[in-house]
């Protein structure tokens, strides 16, 4: 009798299946399969056939991606051998419904894409269908970010270069959830501009360099914060600081508040995710490692016979993560691990010594999260007992609760619909959730939510027209006050007289500052505070209530120490329709009218400017520019009705508010009306472009950073639109392109490119998920076609914001040179700059 090893038998089975698969494919008629069209080929489409552009954007090599037709295994196709970057293929295929099926890292291993509308599209006959780019970014070998992104212009460029005859013959249709009028608009514009440069020759030109050394070097101002995180021990004498001063280096430094001695505890090449005190003398922290799995390390101090601390490192078991400290058991923590059966086990871990840690074993029988399945997160009461759990259910998450020490949990709420309910704290008994909400209310208020009855049982703070920002928590998790913004400043309001005296003392000690409690010890007598102002970078203070002394113990940006910054002030006015508004003006020192930079904020709904320290505003002021920031309708902080007033106001009433602020500022402050530019990021970038169209004689230039150029594109090229729920929220807050297409075209700068006559600077990160780079690609192309080629910068690896210091420096150096050229005393001339390569 012949026997085979498992591997040999498996190999034979695999060969048999491959042979059977091949025979099945041979048996399929040619019309039932996708057939690749090679460059230069010009096939004729048969009845019922169409063309499809398949595009995959990946940052790792892929064995292939698979599509299927009509939900069946056969009749689709495989795009194989994909290198990092963006790959395109053109196929002839029968009309019908298709879906992305699998992403293959190797021929044997890959990701199955869930059966949902997110990865389906319909291929129509007689035209070129473009379903969007399949975006793939693996987080680890077992998980990744996948979604569809509309980059129709990039796809059209590839078609025009690789398949020019087919591009000329057939119309391209985007097959996403919403229409995209741009492909047809672009073809018509090309016909109207026969002398337009070929796509390969169109690129952002490098902005002009600053004319001289800048008053404050961007490399100094845009380094970011030195202190990224902090944690105070329960006794209140040891403060752990996560410090970031150099690229790829994060440190944990320990400050002894009683002696001012400082000690380096740990370093990491990535940001440290969590710091947790296990009692007064053991600090635990979570460090990310390159394979995607975090490790937990620690250090503890034991007092030697001579009274000095002796520090010992701690290494916690791999594959686990910290849940919470146990206040009643200082040398123990709750620690979660994944068992061999896939369940998460939360157990008590003794961290009194490395020997105690080494004796610990993950065991199912020792877990404290009994009665739960598919639980992924946990919340404890003030004594460290597990009371609430976050459980995965279907495609979402549910919060579950138990009374006392029982094992029966019941549902409290789903966590997928908390847009209007923001938890900010948990009571000592864990039977009430403190939250900020405006659901059914005129403004955001602090409330207490009873988990047993699943109802709001108390309103702890409410003030007309004021949105609560956060809760101030005292000892025993007691809510003692709230914070909110008023006239641009952060206000701390306390409920009781004793606490209110504390608030008054802080205001007297730090007049004109925004003060936030960053940490407090167990009895509330030792506090660590952040304090800043418009002209004062954030400083860290230690407040000892026993001694009634506050002293500086650190700075967020010590390299700015001693520099003078421009103050900002608030002014109030009304928009054209009578809506009360606030704006902030920052004036540089010196006599005479100042050139003005109008600086609208992003969002636009639920975001606001304030009178805290803003590096970008101060950079502009240091160059001699006045800066105007406006809390237009839709901004946060002024109540629900004010936020709701921003809906449907994009490109119209919001910009009317900004215009009214400009008129008021010119009447109140020494501003030069002949020297004005508008600059913004995200929605602010969109607003900058819109305002140059609506008021063409007012501005000398516009800067759009990661800005929206095409309102309709935002619905098909944003992480906000990758789910049915996300799209519903976009329609709720921004409108529905299917019903409001004409209005969205009318308020999209892209479709009025020829009305933008001023010099334009564009800047964008190539990994932006919120506002895809396609916005800048389209805006660049159309401005170039109109004879107004923009300057600008694109940044590898950056998302919706600029995390890399070198990129921030390059961005604001470019902005400085561009503004200097545009706002020089004579009338602005077209910006001259060297050519740069396109991304």
TrEMBL record:
Alphabetic keyword roster: Hydrolase
Location of the Peptidase S9 prolyl oligopeptidase catalytic domain: 613-823
Protein name: Prolyl oligopeptidase family serine peptidase
GO term, biological process aspect, one: proteolysis
Single Gene Ontology MF annotation: serine-type endopeptidase activity
Family annotation (InterPro entries): Peptidase_S9_cat
Biological source species: Xanthomonas indica
């Amino acid at each position: 009798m012949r026997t085979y090893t498992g591997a040999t038998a498996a190999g034979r089975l695999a060969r048999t299946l491959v042979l059977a698969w091949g025979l099945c494919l041979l048996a399929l008629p040619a019309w039932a399969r996708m057939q690749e069209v090679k460059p230069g080929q010009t096939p004729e489409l048969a009845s019922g056939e169409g063309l499809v552009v398949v595009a995959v954007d990946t940052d790792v090599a892929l064995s292939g991606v698979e599509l299927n037709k009509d939900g069946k295994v056969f009749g689709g196709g495989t795009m194989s051998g994909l290198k990092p970057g963006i790959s395109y293929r053109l196929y002839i295929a029968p009309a019908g419904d298709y879906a992305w099926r699998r992403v293959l890292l190797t021929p044997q291993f890959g990701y199955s894409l869930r059966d949902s509308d997110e990865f389906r599209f319909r291929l129509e006959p007689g035209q070129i269908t473009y379903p969007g780019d399949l975006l793939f970014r693996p987080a680890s070998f077992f998980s990744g970010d996948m979604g569809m992104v509309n980059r129709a212009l990039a796809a059209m460029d590839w078609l025009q270069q690789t398949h020019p005859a087919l591009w000329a013959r057939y119309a391209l249709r985007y097959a996403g959830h919403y229409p995209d009028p741009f492909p047809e608009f672009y073809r018509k514009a090309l016909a109207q501009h026969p002398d337009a440069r070929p796509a390969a020759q169109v690129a952002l030109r490098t902005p002009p360099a600053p004319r001289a050394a800048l008053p404050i070097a961007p490399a100094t101002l845009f380094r970011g914060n030195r202190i990224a995180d902090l944690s105070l021990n329960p006794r209140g004498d040891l403060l752990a600081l996560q410090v970031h001063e150099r690229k790829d280096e994060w440190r944990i430094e320990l400050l002894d508040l009683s002696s001012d001695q400082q000690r380096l505890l740990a370093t990491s090449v990535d940001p440290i995710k969590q710091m947790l005190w296990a009692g007064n003398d053991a600090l635990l922290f979570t460090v990310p490692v390159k394979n995607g799995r975090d490790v937990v390390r620690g250090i503890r101090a034991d007092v030697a016979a001579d009274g000095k601390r002796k520090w010992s490192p701690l290494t916690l078991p791999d594959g686990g993560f910290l849940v919470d400290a146990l206040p009643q058991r200082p040398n123990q923590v709750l620690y979660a691990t994944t068992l061999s059966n896939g369940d998460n086990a939360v157990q008590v871990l003794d961290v009194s010594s490395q020997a105690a840690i080494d004796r610990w074993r993950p065991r199912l029988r020792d877990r404290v999260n009994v009665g739960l399945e598919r639980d992924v997160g946990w919340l404890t009461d003030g004594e460290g007992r597990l009371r609430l759990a976050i459980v995965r259910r279907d495609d979402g998450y549910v919060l579950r609760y138990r009374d006392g020490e029982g094992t029966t949990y019941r549902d409290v709420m789903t966590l997928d619909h908390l847009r209007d309910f923001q938890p900010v704290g948990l009571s000592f008994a864990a039977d009430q959730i403190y939250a900020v909400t405006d659901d059914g209310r005129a403004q955001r208020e602090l409330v207490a939510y009873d988990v047993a009855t699943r109802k709001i049982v108390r309103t702890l703070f409410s003030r007309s027209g004021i949105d609560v920002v956060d809760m101030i928590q005292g000892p025993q998790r007691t809510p003692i006050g709230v914070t909110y913004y008023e006239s641009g400043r952060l206000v701390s309001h306390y409920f009781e007289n004793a606490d209110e005296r504390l608030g008054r003392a802080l205001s007297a000690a730090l007049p004109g500052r925004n003060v936030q409690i960053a940490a407090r010890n167990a009895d509330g007598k030792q506090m660590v505070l952040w304090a800043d102002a418009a002209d004062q970078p954030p400083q860290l203070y230690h407040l000892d209530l026993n001694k009634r002394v506050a002293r500086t113990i650190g700075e967020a940006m010590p390299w700015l120490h001693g520099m003078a910054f421009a103050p900002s002030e608030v002014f109030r006015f009304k928009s054209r329709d009578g809506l009360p508004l606030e704006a902030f003006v920052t004036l540089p020192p010196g006599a005479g009218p100042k050139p003005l930079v109008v600086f609208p904020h992003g969002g636009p709904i639920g975001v606001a400017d304030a009178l805290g320290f803003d590096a970008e505003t101060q950079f502009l002021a240091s160059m001699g520019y006045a800066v105007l920031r406006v809390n237009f309708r839709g901004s946060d902080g002024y109540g629900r009705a004010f936020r709701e007033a921003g809906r449907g106001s994009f490109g119209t009433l919001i910009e009317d508010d900004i215009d009214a602020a400009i008129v008021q500022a010119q009447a109140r402050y020494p501003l030069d009306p002949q020297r004005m530019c508008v600059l913004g990021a995200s929605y602010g970038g969109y607003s900058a472009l819109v305002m140059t169209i609506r008021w063409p004689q007012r501005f000398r230039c516009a800067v759009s950073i990661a800005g929206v150029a095409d309102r309709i594109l935002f619905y098909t090229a944003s992480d906000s639109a990758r789910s049915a729920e996300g799209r519903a929220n976009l329609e709720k807050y921004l409108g529905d392109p299917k019903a409001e297409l004409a209005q969205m075209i009318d308020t999209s700068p892209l479709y009025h490119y020829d009305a933008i006559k001023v010099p334009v600077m564009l800047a964008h990160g190539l990994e932006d998920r919120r506002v895809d780079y396609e916005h800048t690609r389209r805006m660049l192309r159309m401005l170039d076609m109109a004879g107004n080629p923009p300057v600008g910068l694109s940044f590898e690896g950056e998302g919706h914001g600029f995390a890399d210091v070198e990129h921030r420096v390059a961005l604001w150096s470019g902005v400085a040179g561009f503004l200097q050229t545009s706002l020089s005393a004579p009338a602005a001339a077209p910006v001259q700059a060297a050519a740069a390569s396109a991304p």
